Write the structure tokens for this entry.
Amino acid sequence: MQGTKTHRVQCTKTHKELCIIGVAGLLIILCTSGFISSYSATTLNPAQYFFIATSLWLFGCWQTWRRIELNRPHPNAPQFPNLGWANQLTLLRGGLIALTGGFLLQPVPLQLAAWMPGILYGIAATLDRIDGFVARRTQRTSLLGSELDTVFDALGLLVAPILAIQLGKLHWSFFAVSLAYYLFVFGLYWRQKHFRPVYPLLPSQLRRAFAGFQMGFVALVLLPAFSTTITQLLGIAFMLPILIGFFIDWLVVSGRIDGTKPQTINYFSQIDHISKTFLQPGLRLMVAILLIGIVHITIHQNLLIDILAGVLALLIVSGTGARIAALVLLLGAGFLLSHGAISIQTSGASAEIICFYLAALLFATSWLLLLGPGNYCLWRGDDIWVNRQDGTQ
């Protein structure tokens, strides 16, 4: 009897805490709408912004409210007395996604407002890594936190890509990435509803890395610093490995690939070995060759770019922080191409061939960033960081 009373008191405190957070979120949305209304350079509708952002925020609060009972480390443990820092950070991430979503169905934002979607979603993507770190360091990992992380990941990877497509920064086909997640979840629900077996996924480090890089990529795409031509091309490069991963995972959970058989596990282990031994080091070599070749057949009249390209090529081919170097290369090349800082020397090679080489460089660099450097690396601290769980001992 006493245990039930304590449980009810804790629920009441946690619900009150959630209500306070919910009201604070509404006030922030109201202030943001007021800023949009008073900012003369913007073409946005503040009432529409408030309505869409509020709807997304209330949806996140409702998803949290109906899961309050899960605010415990495991099903048989007592409930935590409050949400804790980690869950509060996850809710903050949900609020930032709601603020980003307010730009949906609006005209293209101008000047200062044009930077807001990318910055807001970029902070939300960063918090996706921080909230898990805080939960593990404060020993407050919970079933609630795990479910909310999935809820807001899915919401963000629906809202942000749709906004990027609306702004013309991504091709409409990129929506297949967001749709794939919901189709995957619906497929699992349908199989359970019809008493079909659902098999466990094979362990994979790529799954988590893909999700993190996808959020970071969309956040950068939303920034006005990169042209639509470059971002749409990179969107296709990022989309293909992610969709292939969803397709393979579905084959496993639906039993079309039996992940419980030792032969299957051995087969995927061999594929992973071949990829790390040949494919990923081959990507490093390809990126380095393409980068040096393109620098020599383009006119940019900047010695610093020559030196930087040489350093990046050396870091990538030697596997010294290859993922960091690939990220710097993508950002730098995307910015320079977007602002016309690299022009084509048509006397040495045709413009069509050089454009093909540039596209190949962007694709290969994107895949290197997603898949990792593979074997034969001098230093892979960045690769280890991508694949580890921060906060674990």
